[in-house]
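Both lines are quoted verbatim for reference:

——
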Amino acid sequence: MADKSRNDGAQNAAILLKVAQTMAKLGVSPFPRNYELFYEALSGSNPQLTRDVAALGAQPEQNRIEQIGIKHHLAGFAAVAADTIRADTARSISAMSHALNDGIARKEAFAALLRGFIDRLESDPVVGMSDFADAAGQLRHAVSVFEREERAVVNMMGETVAQLGGLGSDIETMRKASTRDPVTGLANRIAFSAKLAALYDDGNATGPAALALVTIEGLRDLGESHGAAVAEKTLKRLAPVFRKSVKKNDFVARIGTDEFAFVFHDVSADNAEAIAQRIRASVEDVQIALPNRTFTTQTLSLSTGIAMALTASGSADLFTQAELALGAVRSSNKPGVLVFSAAIGGRTEKTYSPHAA
């Protein structure tokens, strides 16, 4: 299992090297969000994204890259999307402000014209018919223009409200994209980090909780043997299994290629271990269909390391303890569940190498 971890690390390094080489060849700026985009494109997990990136060609403008990242709701482009939304909102509000100011000016001009006509009638009751007709004609024309421009303002207000509603929808989509894994629909590592931090208040655990770090054993081999599409389909099948295996107030996130994190609330170590065992059994019951093999299926399993919030000094320590427990399980070459203890920490700290992406 240790050899497999080293092989996984070497594979990730090779992919990152390919991403860097591709970006350098195309003349793409080395921004972190661009690395994310090209990593997703080269992984082949999103065919449409791959096609969009391939269509960029050499020396692509950064704004075209950002349009693709925003279109596919990549987390790294959330800030760019937010800036775009802010700019669009500012333009919409500015245009409406100008339209309303113009409307106020037109109303004031019309009111002045009307007051002048009334003053003239009051001061000269026997004003000539021709003069009266001229003034009435001016008022009639002013009313016609005023009504037409008011309708235009009303229409513009409707369009602006609709546009602002669309921007609100974009903001909600961006918020969800920044905290959701695009393949499984589960929470992602960003959301997991926030959840982990919320388990502690000034270094003290907010309640009895357990963190379970999980590796899906066999998923990477499945992807290497049968393609990324099969691995992605498998993840989509396992996601509802994970959701149904935890209570409503519990939490599950995908934090790496084949790594997941669970937070169980109001549990003891024995409870957490029992829950993890049930999840592992549920995963082992899933039959994975293999391409071009009608009568052949494959099963996967889980390795799980658990740490308890009340015995850790903070979120970072809790994560480290769960990692060490997971490392001890994986080094045994047999999928299983293990709760962290001081003995595990002393036994594994010299040999364990972090595997999480």
The two ends are 17 Å apart (CA to CA). Residues 129-179 form the longest helix (51 residues). Confidence is low (pLDDT under 50) at residues 348-357.
